[in-house]
TrEMBL record:
<dbReference type="GO" id="GO:0051213">
    <property type="term" value="F:dioxygenase activity"/>
</dbReference>
<keyword id="KW-0285">Flavoprotein</keyword>
<dbReference type="InterPro" id="IPR016156">
    <property type="entry name" value="FAD/NAD-linked_Rdtase_dimer_sf"/>
</dbReference>
<dbReference type="GO" id="GO:0016651">
    <property type="term" value="F:oxidoreductase activity, acting on NAD(P)H"/>
</dbReference>
<feature type="domain" description="FAD/NAD(P)-binding">
    <location>
        <begin position="3"/>
        <end position="292"/>
    </location>
</feature>
<dbReference type="InterPro" id="IPR028202">
    <property type="entry name" value="Reductase_C"/>
</dbReference>
<dbReference type="InterPro" id="IPR036188">
    <property type="entry name" value="FAD/NAD-bd_sf"/>
</dbReference>
<dbReference type="InterPro" id="IPR023753">
    <property type="entry name" value="FAD/NAD-binding_dom"/>
</dbReference>
<dbReference type="Pfam" id="PF14759">
    <property type="entry name" value="Reductase_C"/>
</dbReference>
<keyword id="KW-0223">Dioxygenase</keyword>
<protein>
    <submittedName>
        <fullName>3-phenylpropionate/trans-cinnamate dioxygenase ferredoxin reductase subunit</fullName>
    </submittedName>
</protein>
<feature type="domain" description="Reductase C-terminal">
    <location>
        <begin position="312"/>
        <end position="380"/>
    </location>
</feature>
<dbReference type="InterPro" id="IPR050446">
    <property type="entry name" value="FAD-oxidoreductase/Apoptosis"/>
</dbReference>
<keyword id="KW-0274">FAD</keyword>
<dbReference type="Pfam" id="PF07992">
    <property type="entry name" value="Pyr_redox_2"/>
</dbReference>
<dbReference type="GO" id="GO:0005737">
    <property type="term" value="C:cytoplasm"/>
</dbReference>
<keyword id="KW-0560">Oxidoreductase</keyword>
Amino acid sequence: LKRIVIIGAGQGGFQAAASLRQEGFAGEIVLIGDEPELPYQRPPLSKTYMKTGDATILPLRPESFYDAQGITLRMGSRVEAIDRAVQRVMVDDEPVAYDHLILATGTRNLRPPLPGIEHCLDLRSLSDAKALRAALSGASSVGVIGGGFIGLEFAAVARAAGLEVSVAEAAPRLMARAVSAQMSERFAEKHRALGTMLRLADPVAEISAKGLTLASGKSIACDFALLSAGVVPNTELAAEAGLSIENGIKVDTQLLTEDPAISALGDCASFPDPFSGRLVRLESVQAATDHARHIAKRLIKGAQAPYRAVPWFWSDQADWKLQIAGLAAPEDRAEELPDGTMLRLDGERVTAVETVNNAKVHMRSRKAMGQGTPLMLEDFAALAG
Ligand code: FAD
């Protein structure tokens, strides 16, 4: 391989470039991103950055890193098309050839076609976060559409800044896709105790400059609204190039698309979960980073064992750090341990471990799940003790 091109210079695209060098790749690496800033981390956008406005904590590496590593960084550049037949991409009307292509295009905010949706702000990029901070500073109330991780992290920051905060969630519980019903309830109590108003099972029907109107007819007055109701994967480039899409760019256990010259990773990729075999698409720093490392190793060292890194995730809401090790299916049952740890179970197999402010159990769970054999309920007591 002479030249590897990476589309998307976020968490995973950056990591792929860095890992290719770490694995000893001596050829050309071109990292193309359509945002103007140096590659940066998104998690602080709804946490420390939202609180402090300190953007110096965001870049994944300083500019000198890319020079020193010989990584050609093309920021503010958008890839418009992939021509698989001749192995090249079009960047701002200029063709760039590749020997291998890595798709790391991430996601964008879902914008449902609701009346007045144009009044809502987003929280996905640094430029979104800047606009949101500006709105925060002049307001006394905010409506948050969507009770997932990002909406709730933002709600906690806004509440701490003294705003009146209302969260409207269409589902009957918070973070419903990701955690057990018991954990959702614990967080609902926490946010209520902070003084946030929660409206569950009541989708937003309309937005105006004055506030939100819910399906039930209730209205929420607010100075501005954040839309945090999920994302859509950026799969259009891949789809137009004829690659299969199944809730994301479909890849195999080596994170390869059907085209042996194209890999995909992170938020935009659907990959087979090693335990259940079902295709999953994860929106986490862990997936983007571990996918990138796996792809870099395969490209440089050749065939290797199927991808099977243990998924993990965190979310900071006020003084609570939620951590999840593993990956539960929605139907997995939940069992609470005396120390508050919540286990998700498929039969006797522990599929995920949810903890709050308990880094020790989280780290031990991740380690135990990474041993190569399934973690069973009967083994868990020894681990937590
Ligand atoms: P991204 O980092 O999104 O990068 C994709 C990049 O590709 C973007 O810059 C995009 O503009 C660019 N791009 C797309 N199409 C093109 C094109 N055609 N040409 C050029 N460039 C293109 N995860 C956690 O694990 N824990 C957290 O606490 C957490 N908090 C978060 C808080 C916020 C506010 C947000 C937004 C995300 C958070 N995440 C968190 C999720 C995490 O940031 C993502 O999972 C991760 O960034 C995914 O990496 P990625 O490389 O797949 O995509």
